[in-house]
Design brief:
Protein name: Intradiol ring-cleavage dioxygenases domain-containing protein
Shape: globular
Number of strands: 17
Distance between the termini: 37 Å
Order of helices and strands: EEEHHHHEEEEEEEEEEHHEEEE
CATH topology: Protocatechuate 3,4-Dioxygenase, subunit A
GO molecular function: ferric iron binding; oxidoreductase activity, acting on single donors with incorporation of molecular oxygen, incorporation of two atoms of oxygen
Pfam families: Dioxygenase_C (PF00775)
Radius of gyration: 20 Å
Keywords: Signal
CATH class: Mainly Beta
Number of helices: 6
Number of domains: 1
CATH architecture: Sandwich
Oligomer: single chain
InterPro entries: Intradiol_dOase_C (IPR000627), Intradiol_dOase_core (IPR015889)
């Protein structure tokens, strides 16, 4: 069903792996120490207090009004585009099943119910960024390239928990695996065919884009697939004070806002029935059995996209969105498994890093 926010839910999309777990066999992750657990508890508690103050502020009200109008307009535009495609290819549409497992969606559903809502997540600065992060990716919003799958239109809104204002100019890295569970830009055991060395130079389903005046970064992608031991998810990293290069890549800066975002299991299951997802032979891990997600859910955190279908079935595309709170005074060093250079991809020989240090970011 459609997930509609009715109360202020403050959650974290910064997910740590439990002790002895290795993400994709690349980055080992260590258990949280008592000091780190206490620091994390204090960080999240302060974030909750800040967001409660934001909820009734004038800035929050104005931002929500703009958010409702923008997302409603985007949904209308995407649906109109879909209708035009149907008119151009009637035979294909007639032969396609539009049955949806979701309930409660009608053409009269109020846009404010679908798109109104509060900040849903707090991104923590000191976390594991997940497998296969590649530094220096292309600045772009459409990251599909030639990958097949269910179209996904994702919007991530970034709010500063200290000011209640949207964060403008934060470059948000956004990446995930393809429909059969393979990440581009990395050659490694467990990531598709490890003998295919050409994957190091591929860039599909990776990109970053700056947030606009409303703190929103928008992406056109495909719905992510799955791989063994992990539920379906998307990785994000926010960076600032870096350099936009002439080849339209982004380099350097501080990387301080890290997270993994998830989808409802009903939606995942429906997508997995379609091709090419249905050809993926890797073992499926549900949200309920994902160790990273379950660790955070135990603390009443809920890093899930809200969404609507753009037609009668997932084949017509998915519009998904989430609002995320960040503390722009915090920063950390991020490790990368590889780097995209002007000569192609390069795997890290040991551990490469980007960012570091502190200071205020954009929008402060």
């Amino acid at each position: 069903m459609v997930r509609i926010s009715t109360t202020l839910l403050v959650v974290t999309a910064a997910l740590l792996l439990p002790d002895s777990v290795v993400a994709h066999g690349v980055h080992p992750v260590h258990a949280r120490t008592p000091d780190r657990l206490e620091q994390r508890r204090l960080f999240m508690a302060e974030g909750k207090r800040s967001l409660k103050d934001c909820a009734n502020s004038e800035a929050s009200r104005r931002l929500q009004e703009r958010t409702v109008a923008r997302r409603a307009a985007k949904a209308d535009s995407l649906r109109a585009e879909r209708r035009q495609r149907r008119r151009l290819d009637v035979d294909t549409v007639v032969a396609t099943s539009h049955k949806s497992n979701l309930t409660g969606l009608t053409i009269d559903t109020d846009a404010s119910e679908l798109f109104g809502g509060d900040v849903k997540c707090i991104l923590e600065p000191e976390v594991t960024q997940g497998p296969y992060y590649v530094n220096g990716e292309l600045v772009r919003s459409d990251i599909r390239e030639e990958e097949e799958g269910v179209d996904l239109y994702a919007e991530i809104q970034i709010i500063d928990v200290n000011t209640c204002e949207p964060v403008e100019g934060l470059y948000l890295d956004f990446w995930h695996c393809n429909a059969t569970g393979v990440y581009s830009g990395i050659v490694a055991s467990g990531n598709g065919d490890s003998s295919d060395t050409t994957n190091i130079d591929k860039t599909f389903l990776r990109g970053l884009t700056p947030t606009d005046e409303d703190g929103v970064a928008s992406y056109t992608s495909i719905f992510p697939g799955h791989y063994t031991s992990r539920a379906t998810h998307i990785h994000i990293i926010g960076t600032y004070n870096g350099t936009l290069l002439e080849n339209n890549t982004y380099s350097g800066g501080y990387a301080s806002h890290v997270g993994q975002l998830f989808f409802d299991q009903d939606l995942i299951s429906e997508v997995e029935l379609t091709a090419p997802y249905s050809t993926n032979t890797q073992e499926v891990t549900t949200n309920a059995n994902d160790k990273i997600l379950s660790e955070e859910a135990a603390e009443d955190f809920d890093p899930f996209f809200e969404y609507v279908l753009l037609g009668d079935s997932v084949s017509d595309g998915v519009l998904a969105w989430i609002s995320v709170g960040v503390d722009m005074t915090r920063a950390q060093t991020i490790t990368a498994a590889g780097t995209l250079t002007s000569d192609g991809g390069v795997m890290a020989e040991s551990t490469s890093t980007m960012g570091g240090g502190g200071g205020m970011g954009p929008g402060s």
